[in-house]
Amino acid sequence: MKQALLRFTVENFGEDLRKMLCSSLAHVVFKWEPGFEELLRERKMCRRVASPGTMSYYRNLFKQYLEGKSLSEEIVDYVINHENKWLRNVFRHYVQYLYYLRRIPRRHMVG
Fold it and tell me: Which terminus of the chain has a smaller tally of CB atoms within 10 A, N or C?
């Protein structure tokens, strides 16, 4: 019954659902925080950021292109199409950080 209801809802109200999900994420504003830096340095599963130079580069990318932006489809498209491919890494790590803090649910994870 649940699957039939979900299928009907998606087929008939898919666009409305997408708008609702996007608006629920709009409250998530990107801000470089010490906790994010700690995650990159100490809690990242693979290839932790050990170099101060790399951390500085990530911080500069974040502050230049992501700081103050809201999580949305537009920012995802912007990052995907950005000429600097390292921005994707920073963005992906930040989304993982948001999930770690439970600011976004798992179904919204990217990358």
Answer: N
pTM: 0.70
- Residue 110's SS3 state is coil
CB 20, CB 108: distance < 8 Å = no
List the beta bridge partners of residue 70.
Answer: 29
| Cα 93 from Cα 35, distance rounded (Å) | 12
**Phi, psi dihedrals of residue 29, rounded to the nearest 5°:** -105, 130
Q: Average of pLDDT values for 24-45?
A: 82
CA dist 72 and 77 (Å) reads 9
Say whether pLDDT at 26 is over 90.
Answer: no
Under a CB-based contact definition with an 8 Å cutoff, are residues 103 and 28 in contact? yes
**How large is the average pLDDT for residues 12-37?**
71
* CA–CA dist 32, 67 (Å, integer): 7
DSSP code per residue over 18-33: HHHHHHHHTT-B----
